[in-house]
Write a structure and sequence with these properties.
4 helices; flat
Length: 82
């Protein structure tokens, strides 16, 4: 397994643990850190393995961090649609 996929798997493991051990006081700050840490990993996966594998990793990350994505979508919708 390449370094990019190993990092993506490690990220998924940490994100799943954070989701299971959700404490409202630190869940959202850790989710933000996971998003920030996941972006370079995702870029590395896209660069090393191409679009198809990158999209699969992106779908997996989106399924784990669905609530931050839902909140982002809601904020963007409010901003652009009033």
């Amino acid at each position: 397994m390449s370094l990019a996929l190993t990092l993506a798997a490690l990220w998924a493991l940490v994100a799943s643990l954070v989701a299971m051990l959700a404490d409202p006081r630190w869940h959202w700050p850790v989710a933000r850190l996971l998003v920030l840490a996941g972006l370079p990993v995702l870029a590395l996966v896209f660069w090393r393995h191409g679009v198809l594998v990158g999209l699969l990793v992106l779908a997996g990350a989106a399924s784990v961090l669905r609530w931050p994505l839902i909140r982002l979508w809601q904020r963007l919708a409010r901003r652009f649609h009033g």
